[in-house]
Amino acid sequence: MEQSSAGPAADLATIRRSLPDQEEIVDVADVFSLLGDPARLRILVALTSRPLRVRDLAVVSGSSESAVSHALRLLRAHRVVSAQRIGREAHYRLADSHVRALLELALDHVGHTGLLHGVGVAHDDAPALGCR
Amino acid sequence: MEQSSAGPAADLATIRRSLPDQEEIVDVADVFSLLGDPARLRILVALTSRPLRVRDLAVVSGSSESAVSHALRLLRAHRVVSAQRIGREAHYRLADSHVRALLELALDHVGHTGLLHGVGVAHDDAPALGCR
DNA sequence: TATTCATGTGAACAAGTATTCACATGATCG
DNA sequence: CGATCATGTGAATACTTGTTCACATGAATA
Q1: In a domain, B80, yes or no
Q2: Is residue B13 part of a domain?
Q3: Nearest to A31 by CA among B48, B74, B78, B113
Q4: Which of A47, B47, B101, B117 has its CA 20 to 30 A from that of B108?
Q5: Considering the domain boundaries, does residue B32 fall inside one?
Q6: How many structural domains compose chain B?
Q7: Residue B60 contacts residue A16 (beta carbons within 8 Å)
Q8: Is the CB of B39 under 7 A from strand C?
Q9: DSSP string, A44-75
Q10: B82 vs A127: CA distance, rounded Å
């Protein structure tokens, strides 16, 4: 998605028309919002490693099992994670590669290198630009 | 993208140690949270096209100028956008390529797969459990 | 069957937050 | 200078939301 459908120096009306409709905006915002809570984010980063049970996630992320369950319910409802029941255990995992990509992009952004695998950390880190 | 620096079937302690510390988690969560508000998201998507002034962003995004200014203040504080003053106007743009990449990933996902949008699927509650 | 275990859930309180309104700041123009 | 314009900001309100607590569900075990 480069300059989108709007060409270079598009006028305001063109830009406004090029925006996703409210429904899509809200859907995307919902997902970002889900990733925007530290407790849920810890859960998701933990799931970057491998599928985990609710109890494990509580231990790893440092939240109560109830809080984790509530969090997973929301994440499930928005297809951010998927669950698989085996007996009385529920194994959760990241729903798809897009979620993983979002997490890795963001972690890379703050310079966290411990979690990512062979990914060459050649990020360009453009430091704003505000001054001219 | 492979699992993580933790080997296959890493134990819980290993996974827990591999998590970013609280400070990094909160930083990343803050950015996601900023992208998680529909009004701010509209602003940011508009900025993927080209730099815009506060007034233009108000028109394009459909929020009041005051609301936009408040939003931009937060986005600026977290280096999500950068500003350049020209006379009495302030031109805002996306701060760096990471932000753009996050937006593109999310919007692209919605546009192509309907995962967030739910192609013919109710998107508020998902069963998602027990799929094997 | 009774018990235990893992997970799910509803209600309610606490904490955070986005918007509006009124006004401040600071630059430009007549 | 005084007026006007674009933007920034503080306080207050209304709204959203995450956590805890108590309990429910449903599967395994004895």
Answers
A1: yes
A2: no
A3: B113
A4: A47
A5: yes
A6: 1
A7: yes
A8: yes
A9: HHHHHHS-EEHHHHHHHHT--HHHHHHHHHHH
A10: 9
Which chain B positions have a beta carbon within 8 Å of A58's beta carbon? none
What gap in Å lies between CA A97 and CA A11, rounded to an integer?
35
pLDDT in tens, A23-52: 999 999 999 999 999 999 999 999 999 999
Cα A111 to Cα B25: distance, rounded to the nearest angstrom: 11
* Domain with A70 in it: 12-109
As a whole number, mean pLDDT of residues A74-94 equals: 96
Rounded Cα distance between A42 and A44, Å, is: 5
Domain harbouring A24, CATH code: 1.10.10.10
Angstrom distance (rounded) from CA A58 to CA A67? 8
Q: Can you read off the two tokens belonging to residue A41? A: 């984010």
User: Distance from residue B10 (CA) to nucleotide D15 (C1'), in Å?
Assistant: 42
CA B11 to chain centre: 31
- Mean of all residue pLDDT scores within chain A: 82
Structural domain includes residue B82: yes
- Within 10 angstroms of residue A66's Cβ, the number of other Cβ atoms is 10
Find out whether A13 and B56 touch, Cβ atoms under 8 Å. no
pTM score = 0.82
End-to-end CA distance of chain A: 27
Tokens representing A26 are: 């809200």
Q: Which of B35, B83, B111 is opposite residue A32, by nearest beta carbon? A: B35
Q: Nearest CA to A106 among B75, B39, B27, B104?
A: B27
CA distance B44 to A28: 12
Question: What's the one-letter identity of residue A77?
Answer: A
